[in-house]
Amino acid sequence: MKCINCGAECELTKSLLKWRCPFCDSLYDAEGEDAEKIREKYQEFDPEMFVVERDFSEFMDKKVTATNIKSLKRCLNELGSVEEILSYIRRTHSNCEDIAMDDIREDMINACHERLASILEPSEKLLMYIDRGIFFKNKEYYLITDKRSIFVYKKKNPFVYHKDISSLKLESFMDTPSWEINQSYETAVGNVAITGDLSGAIVALIILLGFRNDPNKDRIRLI
Ligand SMILES: [Zn+2]
What we know:
alpha+beta, 2 domains, five-stranded mixed β-sheet, 13 strands, binds zinc ion
């Protein structure tokens, strides 16, 4: 389609199902067939962001793991931005007791600010708190800031800067999906809630933070 503002030929954007004018940055909604086309094209992992080294179809008969993968793709391809994913999580998972973020159990976030004052950089913003589930409540959890994921265990707090994520490895023991960052089980985004949908969204979030913090970041290997 042609830009209504300046007449230039618009390009389809992958993230928000919109047409974007490369000259004046005007945005127009993509509808009908166009939207369908984008969905089809991006139902797979974006080759500009990932090197896919694994056949993920092997997980499709595992219910929770398949939901996790679908949610990850949908959040990347259809929501496509950090803000959209945060607001999606806020909309759909505000009743999940394992997470905290702005407007959802904010006291947990504030408590972490105090507890981790020595770890957090002064300008670092805490976006999400995620509990590791019922047996570890308030003891083992991880935090997503605008800069990194911090994994809090009893005695140590390994972390990975989002821009330094070089690989994501999917493990699925007993259909409990877990994405290991840079091949370490200590820095793994495990399943949250039961369905797999939320943890897929969380993985999408940290990926987009990585590419936002370093637009020239190397592609992430999916292994
Ligand atoms: Zn234009």
